[in-house]
Amino acid sequence: MVQRHRYQYGPDPSQWGELFLPELPAGGKHKGVVVVIHGGYWRSRYGAELGEPLARDLAEHGMAAWNLEYRRAGNGGGWPGTFQDVLAGIDRLAGLAEPHALDLGKVVALGHSAGGHLAVWAAGRDRLAGLGPAEGGLLQSRGDGVRLTGVVSQSGVLNLAEAERLNLSDGAVSNLLGGPSSEFAGRHRMADPMAALPLDVPVLAVHAREDVDVPLSMSTTYVDASRSGPMPAELVMVRGDHFSLIDVGAEAYLTCRERARRLLG
Q1: What positions belong to coiled-coil segments (predicted)?
Q2: C-alpha span between 137 and 231 (Å, rounded)
Q3: Which CATH number fits domain 3-264: 3.40.190.10, 3.20.20.300, 3.40.50.620, 3.40.50.1820?
Q4: Rounded distance between C-alpha atoms, residue 218 and residue 163, angstroms
Q5: What pLDDT, in 10s, does the model give residues 74-124?
Q6: pTM (predicted TM-score)
């Protein structure tokens, strides 16, 4: 039987996460956690209800899952709120480890679409200070924060500069960051997972072959750019469309679940 526990990580109504836990034997411990980060092109009308079926399914298959909500553009998010929330939401797990017997030695993010962007971005949190702009100080997180040990990106928007050039979802990138890169070059760079390469954690860029919402180039350009690093990202193509990746009955999603399980070891 799956247990559910909801916790705030800040005072805003959107700053919360819900922990889905499988049953444990007496004295047992959950071997890692999967952080589920929903998509919706960072807009407020899409919320954590998109990630709930995935988190429940992961728990039903033996994995602890943290379904993370965050402020989006339109309800207090955007720059820098959305990014601050993702880091703070992941760090909230540190306070939940003891009461819920969580082993935080392995923390894997599973992010869909814009959530894939945020998941891969969060994996590069330690490189933020080296990206230059003074405004990057807005995103500094505690040195003892919870670090991701792997990411499964589900048709993630992993190349923000290209996404802006393509005007994906009618200007979603500029909407997230408060304006175009021509005006806010620093924050666009800070927000782009491409700028944090190379990473030292595994990133699996799972992309649906029939995806017409997020172009394949969002994954391929990221994977190509990672090849010179110590841990190149891996491209995994699956059958289905954009939403097959979050359909818990679809083969595309099952591939993502299995990849998350492998990353948990």
Answers
A1: none
A2: 27
A3: 3.40.50.1820
A4: 7
A5: 999 999 999 999 999 999 999 999 999 999 999 999 999 999 999 999 999
A6: 0.96
